[in-house]
Amino acid sequence: MLPSLVILFSLGLVFGGAYWWFYLRGRVSTDDAYVMAHVASVSSRISGTVSEVLVDNNDPVTKGQVLVQVDPRDYQVAVDKAQAVVARLEADIRAQEMTMDLVERETQGQSLVADSAVEEAKRTEQAKLHDMDELVKKRPATQADLTYAQREFNRFDDLYRRGAGSQESRDNALTMLEKAKASLKELDAQIASSQASFEAARQKTEQDKHNLEISRSDLQKAGIERHRLASLRAQKDAAQADLEAAKLQLSYCTIKASIPGRVAERSVQVGDRIQIGQPVMAIVPLHAVYVEANFKETQLEQVRPGLPATVEADVYPGYVYHGRVSGIGAGTGAAFSLLPPQNATGNWIKIVQRVPVKIELDQPPPPEYPLRVGLSLQVTIDLTRREGLEEKGAR
Questions:
Q1: Which end of the chain is less crowded, N or C, counting CB atoms within 10 A of the terminal residue's CB?
Q2: DSSP state letter for 238
Q3: 174, 160 in Cβ contact below 8 A?
Q4: Are 102 and 218 in contact (CB under 8 A)?
Q5: How far apart are CA 103 and CA 269, in angstroms?
Q6: Integer Cα distance of 167 and 152 in angstroms
Q7: Domains of the chain
Q8: pLDDT (tens digit per residue) in 246-294
Q9: pTM over 0.70
Q10: Rounded to an integer, what distance in angstroms lies between the CA atom of residue 40 and that of residue 270?
Q11: Is the dihedral of CA 351, 356, 359, 365 positive or negative?
């Protein structure tokens, strides 16, 4: 009996050592592993009353599928109001454009006419001034002729009185004197008339200049109309933005799925009053689940991203999923806990820490072996198959 037990014990040691050498030595495993997924929390972006719930827990949904409908009437009123404001401002802009075009045409025409009138008045004023200067220049010569005629008349009159001259010579001298006086008087009248014409032309020029300033001020009014039009367009842009915001709020009344998956944690019913940011359900992408295995820190010496791994779920004994290491956590689970340990205080006991290792499956779980978030797993990483790995910086 004793020899048999010794033989059996020896065989057990041999087979156990061989199993460890050929299989366990090149692998690390843990049963502290679970199915994980990037669960999308569906929440409301507006406040309102739920009018319809179109899905229930565990229902499959596609991206963009309608999940919940919020009563849209209040938000539709806001859209209608914003549309009315935009329509009114568009009408005001069209009316202002027509007014501005009319004002610009009138003021530009008036300005052109006033400018032409000023130029014409200036030319007339210059012409009148030139004529007056010419007449004024003639006066000294005419005055000299009068002075000469007066002197000749005095000489012939004196000769006539003394009996040394004839009556005819005196009469001729008197005629010349009268002509000279008439010529000077006529020239003075022409000068006075020319001065009056020049003054009238100068006043006309001043009046046309004043009219030109008025037309230019009317052009400034046209500029004011342009600024008013720009203001209306800016108001219309702001109203258009308000309209787009109102439409966006209205679109939020329809809550849609952001990702495909299955519905979970539905917490809303028809008639509920929901608030902004309130979660109403979650969507679990079961087609994109991954594994989070918490290995001991002493097991991670040779673990690198890309190493193959096998995964067994407690719910499906004997079925093996295949995947690869895609990343190693940046810290231990304790380091990111709500109350991280303070090892520098009090009595300290060393505890082997665990580090989360992410494993992505090579293929989505088959329909006959679906995985659910939170299921317990047994994960084994093969450390012997290192082809294609980058040893440096692989972590």
A1: N
A2: H
A3: no
A4: no
A5: 62
A6: 14
A7: 27-71+263-337+348-382 (2.40.30.170), 75-250 (1.10.287.950)
A8: 999 999 999 999 999 999 999 999 999 999 999 999 999 999 999 999 9
A9: no
A10: 22
A11: positive
